[in-house]
Each structure stands twice: as structure tokens, then as C-alpha cells.
Amino acid sequence: MSTPTLVAHREDAPRTVGAELADVLLVTVLAATLTGVLVAGPALRLGMFLLRVTSPGSVVGMQSDDDFTIGRFTLGGTYNLFLIGVATGYLSCMVWLLVEPWLIGARWFHLVTVTVTGALFVGPMLIHDDGIDFHVLTPQALAVAVFLAIPALVALAGPVTLAWVDRHRPRGHWRWVLPLLCFVPFPPALGIAAFVAVVLVAVVCLRLTVQPRLLESRVGATSVRALFMLFPVSGAIALAGDLAALAG
Length: 248
Prior knowledge:
Elements: E1 2-3, E2 15-16, H1 17-54, H2 75-99, H3 107-126, H4 133-136, H5 140-167, H6 174-181, H7 189-208, H8 210-216, H9 218-247
Antiparallel strand pairs: 1-2
């Protein structure tokens, strides 16, 4: 049994489900880890530092809503930020592999779509009137911008890194060794990787069965795209409510 490829291959021949799934998982592990270490983790660390610098000194030592100590640079805190970054890298890559076939337009428009969706859907989960973060970190507009920019950046970095890793994937025994080495510094990432693996199994199965027929059907394709549109639209509504609450 063969399946359309989820990632690029030098050969044009169809792949078996097992071979395709193995390739996708290996590429995803590498891409997600790189996204977390090179993009998401540093972005979180830099965002926290920027807000500390622009906020009054009285915030130092306070516990943030996510249980980080504001203004304290510790190895453990930085590691946790990078671990969160790796987890978000997995989610970014997974979502891209799930939705990319349904996106319309050129690739650049696909990337814009997931970037904006990342900001609109994840941003409201981070921005809220409860707690202290958006009341003690100033200026408030900068805090909002930071927590919108980070998910947007990760949403963009996931597919870009996924494509780069796919073009430069390791060969021979390194194709197995490098992904395994990714879990050495981040053992908790095994949990999110297992979840992503289950989702990607479903993605491969869908590409073999339902998806081709849905893509060929105008009603089916439009229905799926409308379903996906609910995420940025609902996020935008939630974000508007959060901003109104903060302004009030």
C-alpha cells in the first residue's frame, strides 16, 4: 500500500505507509527540537527579559501567572522555557502537517495563514485579565505584543524548519541516531512526541482514505476549510474580549 508523501523525497515513487510514517516522525523530531532550541526557547527568554527591563523594579521576585520568578535568571528557569519551546515546536510541526494540504494559494500565503492563526488562536490563551502578568509588566501594550509575537513566530518557524530538515535529512545510521539524541537534553519531550506520533498516524491514514475524496469535492474541501477557519476566528473574538477587559 502506498501513500502520498507528507514530506519531500528525492525519488518520485510512492512510499509505503510504514516508510512514510517513519520518515515523517524522524523529520518532525528534528524540526521540532530545532524550532524549540533555536527559535521558541530564545524568543521566550528574550521576551521575558525585555518585559523585565521595561517594567518597574518592584516586579523582580514576583511569581508570574506561569510560576516563573520575574527578573530572576536561573538555569532551571531557562531550561523550562526551552522545554516549553520544544513542546511548542512539536505542536507547530504537527499542525502544519495536518492543515497544509487544505490551505489555499501559494506557499508564502500558507505560511502567512499559519502565522496569523498561531497569533490569533494561541495569543488569547496567554493574554488575560486575571492574575498579575498584564497588570505589573509594563508597558501593557508591549506585553500583549510579545505574547502575540511569540506564538506567531513559532507557528512560522515550525513549517520552515520542517522543510529545511526534510531537504537536509541525515542519511545512514544518523537518521535514527540524531532524533534519539534530541531526547537526551529534553526527556519530557517524549510525552509530546508520543502524542504527535499518534496524530501523524491518523494523518497518514486520512491521506490514504478520506482526504483525497474530500479534496476533490468542492463541498467537502470547503467544509474542512471552514472548520479550520473557526480557530482563527474564535481566537480573534477571544483576543478582542481580552483586550477590552485589559483596557477596562
